[in-house]
Amino acid sequence: MNRHDRVAVVTGGSLGIGAEISTQLLDDGWTVHVLARNAGAYANAGHRSCRTHDVDVRDSRALKAAADDVAASAGQLDALILCAGIGYPTPLSSVTRDQYDELFETNVAGAVFTAQAFAPLLRDGQAVITVISSIAGRRGFADWSLYCASKHGLEGFTASIRDELRPRRIRVTSIQPGSVDTPSYDHLSAEEKAEFMEPATVAALTVQAIQLPPEAVVEVLFLNNAVGDL
Ligand SMILES: NC(=O)c1ccc[n+]([C@@H]2O[C@H](COP(=O)([O-])OP(=O)(O)OC[C@H]3O[C@@H](n4cnc5c(N)ncnc54)[C@H](OP(=O)(O)O)[C@@H]3O)[C@@H](O)[C@H]2O)c1
Questions:
Q1: What is the pLDDT of residue 153?
Q2: For position 5, what pLDDT does the model report?
């Protein structure tokens, strides 16, 4: 396959980790479709190989329409990166049903129905689905029960579609970063984020895993902060 023919869809590709993944793929010659509620916020939205789609991953019909758009312009896909996600603390004593619905609709249902909409476009024998999970998909953290539960659910989904898509030789990777300095942590001080990773660090390993030859797969990549759990 010609390097310039490679096409990726990145949900949550406008900011933070997803934006860095989008940028590194563009730098490597990929065509990148960025999906977010405000995809135009992506700093490289004007790049000649970038297309943006304003989509809320909680809206299954919008996801299907975006998949139809991508199919019409690109035909097949080489990588689907599921990065759209949200997180915030939810101490048990004050957990609300609205928080539960928001976190699970975005982090779990959003990934499920994005994967469903785009899976038919993935190139057999070649393509990769990369799920940006979290250290919170491996262990629990006090006060973060709903976020951790959503990421554990995402891990179960990821492990299951890995086996389901294996007959098509579509590879499925879970990336589990520790704490990363992205806009989602803009409310923290520089001191509080001193030990956080840069999004570019996570993106570099993610893009390397995406670009492995088709006979190899990174199934799970746990990338923690050097100081340990934050
Ligand atoms: N930062 C960390 O420490 C860290 C650590 C481990 C894992 N993660 C995971 O990495 C992923 C990205 O996190 P980040 O820190 O880079 O977050 P971020 O900077 O807040 O970016 C989140 C991205 O997701 C998009 N998004 C959010 N809700 C969406 C929705 N309903 N529909 C479509 N797009 C949506 C946002 O765009 P719009 O707002 O325009 O929709 C944005 O592009 C998340 O899944 C997160 O759980 C983050």
A1: 98
A2: 84
Cα 212 to ligand 1 centroid, rounded to whole Å:
25
Query: Residue 21: helix, strand or coil by DSSP?
Result: helix
CATH number of this structure's domain 3-223: 3.40.50.720
Name the pLDDT band for 3 (thresholds 50, 70, 90): very low
CA distance 228 to 230: 6
Residue in 42, 100, 147, 185 annotated catalytic: 147
Catalytic annotation on 147?
A: yes
Q: In angstroms, what is the span from residue 182 Cα to ligand 1's centroid?
A: 9
Strand, coil or helix: what is 197?
Answer: strand
Does ligand 1 lie within 6 Å of residue 137's CB atom?
no
pLDDT band at 35 (very low <50, low <70, confident <90, very high): very high
Indicate the residue type of 222: F
Joined tokens for residue 99: 């928080």
Query: Which helix H or strand E contains 104, and what residues bound it?
Result: helix 97-104
Residue nearest to atom 25 of ligand 1 (CA): 12
Query: From the CB of residue 29, how many other CB atoms can be counted at a distance below 10 Å?
Result: 12
Half-sphere exposure of 79 (CA within 13 A, CB side): 32
Ligand 1 atom with least separation from CA of 136: 6
pTM for the model stands at 0.97
